[in-house]
Every structure is written in structure tokens, then in C-alpha cells.
Specification:
Elements (H helix, E strand, L loop, with lengths): L7 H8 L7 E2 L9 E2 L3 E3 L3 E5 L11 E7 L10 E2 L2 E5 L4 E11 L4 E11 L7 E3 L9 E2 L6 E4 L7 E5 L6 E6 L27 E3 L8 E2 L4 E5 L4 E6 L6 E4 L6 H11 L5 E8 L5 E7 L10 E7 L8 H12 L4 H9 E6 L4 H5 L31 H15 L6 E8 L6 E5 L7 H14 L6 E5 L6 H13 L2 E8 L2 E2 L7 E2 L2 H23 L1
Parallel strand pairs: 3-9, 12-14, 22-23, 22-24, 24-27, 25-26
Antiparallel strand pairs: 1-20, 2-4, 4-7, 5-6, 5-8, 8-9, 10-13, 11-12, 13-19, 14-18, 15-16, 15-19, 17-18, 20-21, 21-23, 25-27, 28-29
């Protein structure tokens, strides 16, 4: 018989997640979800079953907690091993199950439910899901037309559209677009050119988006409007300017690898709205960390720059591949990754700032440089600062630091920004150049720049720890538009390409340290 603990224990667990509870393969408890249907009409009842979950050897389940809607910020909607729920609004819902045994061990699993309109009276559009975003809808001769309220990203689904000719008009691109004061104004904003394509997906759970090459595109610079015309071959289609990445993607990735002993993760803090900031650690636990090289990576401080997630996934996939080379790297390196520093803003459709309207990347020092900054560390930045500080003060090394960002306009190459030279010894600055020019440039075309703001993450890390640990520090600006592999033509950025980029980080870093030790 399942024992149900007070429902508030889960809220307390989330509130104090930063105390260091680690999810790793050495815990035998396992959360598992069975669901009656994953794609339903609005108003249909869906049944969920946690009966195949495992409490762990010598234990029994003490609590089973269900969250049916990740959009409403309510942690617990139901308890029990078998439950049901009616989804009344078209969209997509990430359902989370957390199980707990009497020893206090916990595990979580997630699944997604796509909810379609309850009628088929022509095409319908929705952005009611994690990361969804359209804008202000405008009357138009096109099937749908809207003006983007903020930034250039969008992410929505069109239903009832199989074999129906569609046309979209989206205002908010190019040099003539209205630019809010809080947005970095790129004068050379190439949001559209003759090679541009939207990104498309048929199913919410599919991580591999594809370029919508079959569409016909046009662009009106006077109105800053993009027009796309196409005829879908599926009942529903998801569309985005660039492939989105939210907490849903990260949690599904954690589920994939959590049984590997080399892989662990833990919440290190909470966002403004109470979402966990998650840190992943990958290394060989059988080898003492003291002699290993240590790589720290942060990502998605600006939530519309959504490449960090798949790049970090590629890093983990390379480290955990079944090869002698990967096993060697795991014995010699520790990787700490925080792929999603701004989960609130990614959930809300790719806002630049956190929910206090603070630019997290400018928030790493105690100086307020403008109204989009604060002298006090925001909770997201404080969580990462605390995690790195605790690691270093506990005797851990820090050899490489990367802050992953992303170019949100069309560009044919990657950009890497070196830490401010004044924040590190001369010899370290020379090593920065060598790492890029002699090693990473063999794989991709990079533009190289020097950081100008010590308050940004890479400058702050270099300034704090360079003299202690010799950290090489970079801001990597990946490209949402196109990436150019060395010696090849530019290609449209996809999640698969970004994961390949992540894999190349691992081998480039290894090659660099192999050369240093020779």
C-alpha cells in the first residue's frame, strides 16, 4: 500500500533543492510513467499510472506526486499511483512524476501530452506550451499574421492543416523593425536572406527539428515582415525561427542518462519563479578528482539564445559514448555543466532577461552598470557563483570555463570571445589564442573577439580564478542561423549540428591538453 506523505514535502524539497541533493545512478529508486494516450483532443480524459515505478531495494514508496501542467507553476496537481486528468485547452503539456521512498530518495520522470483542438474547422494556431510564443495578431490576407512583441524568436503549432495551403506573415525582422530599448540593436540585422528557412517539427517530443525548405519565402524591408507559404503534409506542424530548448528538453535528457554511474545531476538553486537551476557532472567516479582537468560550462543566460542545451547534450554524449577514447577522457577530466541558467524566460518564449528584468550576463559583479543590471546577484547567477565557489574552495581545480551564448541573427560563422586580457596573466592570454587558432579552427570557422565587459561571466570567472587555477575563459557565441564547418559551406543550424559541435568541444579540449603535456 502506498503511503502518502504530506503534500507540502514536495514543495519543501523544491524550495531547498540547493542543499545539494544529487540524482545519480547509485540510487535504485526509479520513477516510471504509463499513459493511456499521448495525443488527444481537448476535453478528453487521460489516464496515468505510476505502478511500475521502483522504490529501491528494501524500501517502499512513500509519496507519488503528479504535475499535469508545467505552465501554471503549481508543483503538485494530484497524488497516488493511478490518476487521470482532462486537458481542456489545445497545446502541449509536460507531465512530471516524482516518487519518493521512506529513506528520502527521489526520482522523477516526464512525459508530454499533445492536445489538439476539439474541432477540425480549418487551420488553428496555438503557442500554449513550454517555450511557445507568437505575438500580436493582425488582420491580414494571409492565413495568420502577427507582430513579434519582443526579440526575433517564435515557436507555435498549426493544427488542422494537412494538405491546406498556408501563408504566414510575421512582422519584426531586419533593420527597420521596432527595437525596444532593452534589446541590443544590431544595425546589420540579417534576420532574412535568400538562404533562410523556418525550422519545422511534426511532433512536440521530437528533438530533431528540420529546415522547412519546401516553403516559399519573401521579405518586405519596409514593413520588416517575413512571409512564408507552404502546404503541410501532416495534421499539425510546429514552427520556429530557430530550434527551441526548454526545461522539458533538459529533463528528458537527464532521464536518458541517469542510469550511468559517470553521470549525475543536482539542483544548485532556484530561479525567480521557482524553477530549479540544474548542474550536470560527468566524470569517472572511480578515479580521484584531484588530478583531473576541470571544465565548467554555463549556458542560456539569455533565453532566446537557445543553442547551449543541444551543445551540452553533445558534450555529454561524447563523454559517455562506449569507446576507449571516451573512457580515457572520463578518467582525466571532470565536466560540470549548467545548460539552462534562465529556465523561466525559456519557458515564456525566449525572453532575454530573467523575471526581474535583469540581464544575467551583466550581473556577475557588484556593480550596476544600467537599468537592466543590479548590484546584487540575481538568484540564477548566485546559484552558479555559489556552485563554482564551493568547488574551488573545496580544493577543486578550474582549467576551462565556457559561457555558451548564441548569435540570434543570420551569420555564417561562430564567434568566440576571449576573457579580458587584463583579468589574467600574460601567459594565460597566449594560451587562449593557441586553443582557438591551433585547435578549434581546424573544425569550424570562428570569428575571434576580446571581451570588453569584466562583468560578463567569462570576464568575472577569469578575474576571480585565473590567478588561482589558471582557468582559460571564453564566451562562445554559437549561431542560430548557420554554422560553417572548416573547409565547407555554411549549413542551417539544427539540434543535430549543435550536438556535433558539442562533441567537437570534448575532443578539441582533449587535444589541447594532450599537446600541453607532451
Amino acid at each position: 500500500m502506498l503511503k502518502i506523505r504530506n503534500i507540502f514535502t514536495l514543495h519543501l524539497f523544491m524550495l531547498f533543492a540547493c542543499t545539494g541533493f544529487v540524482f545519480a545512478a547509485d540510487s535504485e529508486i526509479k520513477s516510471k510513467i504509463k499513459v493511456s494516450a499521448k495525443r488527444v483532443k481537448a476535453g478528453e480524459r487521460v489516464h496515468f499510472d505510476a505502478g511500475s515505478s521502483v522504490a529501491g531495494r528494501g524500501a517502499e514508496l512513500y509519496g507519488i506526486y503528479w504535475d499535469f501542467n508545467d505552465m501554471d507553476l503549481v508543483d503538485v496537481d494530484a497524488t497516488g499511483d493511478t490518476v487521470s486528468h482532462v486537458f481542456n485547452r489545445a497545446g502541449a503539456y509536460n507531465v512530471k512524476l516524482i516518487v519518493e521512498n521512506e529513506r528520502g530518495e527521489r526520482d522523477q520522470a516526464t512525459t508530454s501530452i499533445e492536445v489538439l483542438p476539439d474541432t477540425d474547422l480549418g487551420p488553428a494556431i496555438t503557442d500554449y506550451f513550454q517555450g511557445g510564443k507568437t505575438g500580436i495578431f493582425i488582420k491580414s490576407e494571409e492565413t495568420f499574421a502577427f507582430r513579434l512583441e519582443w526579440g526575433g524568436q517564435f515557436f507555435f503549432r498549426i493544427d488542422n492543416c494537412k494538405n491546406v495551403p498556408l501563408s504566414l506573415r510575421i512582422y519584426g525582422y531586419g533593420p527597420n523593425r521596432p527595437v525596444p530599448e532593452s534589446v541590443t540593436p544590431y544595425a546589420d540585422d540579417y534576420s532574412f536572406d535568400e538562404h533562410f528557412t523556418l525550422m519545422a517539427n511534426t511532433y512536440y517530443n521530437n528533438p530533431d527539428w528540420r529546415p522547412l525548405t519546401e516553403a516559399k519565402y519573401s521579405y518586405d524591408p519596409k514593413t520588416a515582415a517575413l512571409v512564408a507559404r507552404f502546404t503541410p503534409e501532416s495534421e499539425s506542424i510546429y514552427l520556429a525561427w530557430a530550434s527551441p530548448y526548454t526545461m522539458r528538453n533538459l529533463e528528458q535528457f537527464l532521464d536518458r542518462w541517469e542510469d550511468r554511474p559517470e553521470f549525475s545531476w543536482q539542483p544548485i538553486g532556484m530561479s525567480v519563479e521557482g524553477r530549479p537551476i540544474l548542474q550536470i557532472t560527468v566524470t569517472d567516479p572511480g578515479v580521484d578528482d584531484s588530478g583531473k582537468k576541470v571544465v565548467w560550462i554555463t549556458g542560456t543566460q539569455h533565453a532566446y539564445e537557445m543553442a547551449a542545451g543541444p551543445v551540452c547534450e553533445g558534450i555529454v554524449e561524447a563523454l559517455l559514448e562506449k569507446s576507449d577514447s571516451a573512457k580515457t577522457v572520463l578518467k582525466k577530466f571532470v565536466y560540470h555543466l549548467v545548460p539552462l541558467m534562465n529556465p523561466d524566460a525559456t519557458s515564456r518564449g525566449g525572453y532575454r532577461y530573467n523575471m526581474h528584468d535583469v540581464d544575467l550576463n551583466r550581473n556577475w559583479d557588484d556593480y550596476q552598470q544600467d537599468e537592466w543590471d543590479r548590484a546584487m546577484s540575481e538568484p540564477e547567477v548566485a546559484a552558479v557563483q555559489r556552485a563554482i565557489r564551493n568547488w574551488v574552495s573545496g580544493g577543486g581545480g578550474l582549467d576551462f570555463f565556457f559561457d555558451f551564448h548564441c548569435l540570434t541573427r543570420l551569420s555564417d560563422n561562430l564567434l568566440i570571445i576571449k576573457a579580458v586580457p587584463d583579468s589574467m596573466p600574460q601567459g594565460l592570454a597566449e594560451k587562449q589564442d593557441r586553443f582557438i587558432k591551433e585547435f578549434f579552427a581546424k573544425r569550424y570557422v570562428w570569428r575571434i573577439s576580446e571581451g570588453k565587459e569584466v562583468s560578463s561571466a567569462n570576464g568575472a570567472i577569469a578575474g576571480l580564478y585565473a590567478w588561482q587555477t589558471g582557468v582559460l575563459s571564453f564566451t562562445s557565441e554559437h549561431a542560430l542561423g548557420r554554422i560553417t564547418p572548416a573547409g565547407k559551406d555554411p549549413v542551417r543550424t539544427t539540434p543535430a549540428l549543435l550536438r556535433k559541435l558539442g562533441t567537437d568541444y570534448v575532443w578539441t579540449i582533449k587535444e589541447y591538453f594532450d599537446s600541453v603535456s607532451e
